[in-house]
Amino acid sequence: MAPAKIYSNFINGEWLSSASGRTFENVNPANRNELIGLFQKSDAQDVENAVAAAKQAYKSWKNTPPPKRGEILYRTALLLQENKEEFAEAMTREMGKVLEETRGDVQEAIDMTFYMAGEGRRQFGQTTTSELPNKFCMTVRSPIGLCGLITPWNFPIAIPSWKIMPALICGNTVVLKPATDTPLSSYNLVKVLEEAGLPRGVVNMVTGTGGDVGTPLILHNDVRAVSFTGSSEIGRKVSQACAASFKHCCLEMGGKNVIMVLEDANLDLAVEGALWGGFGTTGQRCTATSRVVVHKSVYKDFMDRFVARTRALKVGDGLDAAVQVGPLINEAQRQTVETYVEVGKNEGAKLLCGGERLTGKEYDNGWFYAPTIFGDCDPNMRIAQEEIFGPVVSVIPCDSLGQAMEIGNGVVYGLSSSIYTRNVNNAFTAMREMETGLFYVNAPTIGAETHLPFGGTKQTGNGHREASVAALDFYSEWKSIYVDYSDKLQRAQIDT
Ligand code: UN1
C-alpha cells in the first residue's frame, strides 16, 4: 500500500505542518480500513500563527475594492465547477453520503461563491436627508475584522463556503477550523481559493479537534466574529465564550424538523418527501425530517407506503450509484442512533422498520444503520423531541391542522417545517403559524437554496441568518456617516 498522503495546514499562504508535528487519521466511514489521509493535529500555537497571519492580511484586504474581492470569488467558483466531480468523490469517501448528494454539496458552494462574488458590486447602503439643513447622511458596510469559522462534517464544502464567501466579500479575513471528520473537503476548498489568487493570510485553515483548535480560536482576543454550525450543546459554549469579549457570534444548531401531512395531501408526494427528508444524507442534516405528523384519516395509507418504500431503500457505499443511503459519519454517531432507538422502544413507540445495525460483508467495515421508522409516537416522547441526527423518523398521528401545528411547534428547535396539502387556506395558515426559519409547502424540510436566508428560531439559532444578502449583515457592521456642509455648528435634536 502506498504511504498515506499527509495534508497540511494553510497559514499565511503556506502549507505547513502543525507546530507539534502530530497528525490524525481521516478514514472512510463506509470502510474504516481505507485511510483518506493524515491531517495536522494542531493546537493553540498553530491557531496563534494563523490568527497573526489573518490579522496582518486584514490591513490590505479590508481596503481592497469589493468588486476585486468578487473577481477572486468568481474565479474560485469556476475552479469549483471544474473540480466538482473530483471533490464530490473525495467527499463521499471521507463523509459517506452518496455521490449525487456530494455533487449537490459542491454545487451549493458553487452557487454561494457566485452569489457572493456578485455581492462585490452590490454593497449598497442608504443615502438620506438630515433633520438639519446643508447636511448629508449615508450608511456604508464596514468589515468586522478577523473571523473564526467552525464548520461541521455533514456539508463539508457547502457550509465552509456559506461562511468564508460572505466573510471575504465584506472584507474580513478568516481562520477556518473544519470538522475533524471531514478535513479533506475543506482542504479542497481552500486549495481552490489559493489557486484563484487570494492574497496570503486572507484565508487560513487549521485542522484538529474542537478542544485543541476551536477553543483557542474562539477565545483569541484578535478574533472579532465567530460563526459556528453544530450542536446546540456546543453552540451554547461558543456563545458564552464569545460573550466574555463581546465577539459577534452566529450560531446554527439543532433541529427537530417536521412534515405535516393533511387529509387532502397528495400522499405519494408526501411519502417521497418524507423519504428524502428523513433518510437523505442518512438523516444527518440539521434540516432532516425527523418527525412526520399525519392526519388520522390518511395515517394507515401513508404509513403502509412509507414503510414499504423505506424497507426498499438501498444502503451501502455512497460511491455505488445504486446506493441511496450511505453510512453514518462515525461509530459515536451510530451509538447515538442506537441509544435513541432503545429509548423509543422503551417509551412505547412502535418500531415499524429498521432499528438495527446492518451486518454482512458489504457493511461490516462501515458505520451502517438501517433506515428506521417509529409509528404511533406521542409528541412528548424523547424520540419526538430531541435531535437524533441519524436515519430515524418518528411518526405522530393527529386530528387537525391546529393539532399538527401545535405538535410541530412543540419542540425547543425551530429550523424547518413543511406541510403537504392541496388546500391553499391550510398552506397559508401554517406558513404564518409555524415557528421555524424555513417553511416548505408540498416539499420536504431539506433543500434550502443559497439566495434565501438560512437559519432557525428558538434553540436552533441566535437570531442571525446565513446565506443570501442576510449573511452580509453578520459579516459587516453598518457605519452611519453625517456630512455637514453648512460651515457652522448644527446641533441635532436642538437646532431643528
Ligand atoms: C445542514 O444540514 O446543516 O437545506 C445544512 C438543506 C441544505 C443545507 C443543510 N441545503 O438541507
Task: Summarize this structure briefly.
The chain is α/β, with parallel strands linked by helices and 496 residues long.
Account of the protein in words:
The protein is an alpha/beta fold. The chain folds into 2 domains: 9-253 and 461-480, 3-Layer(aba) Sandwich (Aldehyde Dehydrogenase, Chain A, domain 1), CATH 3.40.605; 257-441, Aldehyde Dehydrogenase, Chain A, domain 2. Helices cover 38% and strands 22% of the residues. The chain contains 14 helices and 21 strands. The protein has a 7-stranded mixed sheet with strand order 14-15-16-13-12-18-19, sandwiched between helices. Strands 9-8-7-10-11 form a 5-stranded parallel sheet, with helices on both faces. Strands 5-6-21 form a 3-stranded antiparallel sheet. Helix 1 (44-61) packs across helix 7 and helix 9 (267-279) packs across helix 10. It is globular and about 80 Å long. The relative contact order is 0.14. The model has no long low-confidence stretch (mean pLDDT 98). The structure holds 2-aminohexanedioic acid. 2-aminohexanedioic acid binds at residues 108, 154-155, 229, 285-287, 446-448. 2-aminohexanedioic acid binds next to loops.
CATH superfamily of the largest domain: Aldehyde Dehydrogenase, Chain A, domain 1
Q: State the share of residues found in helices, binned by percent.
A: 25-40%
Class derived from helix and strand content: alpha/beta
Distance between the termini: 81 Å
Attached small molecules: 2-aminohexanedioic acid
CATH topology of the largest domain: Aldehyde Dehydrogenase, Chain A, domain 1
CATH class of the largest domain: Alpha Beta
Unreliable segments of 5+ consecutive residues: none
CATH architecture of the largest domain: 3-Layer(aba) Sandwich
For the CA atoms, what is the radius of gyration? 24 Å
Domains counted in the coordinates: how many? 2
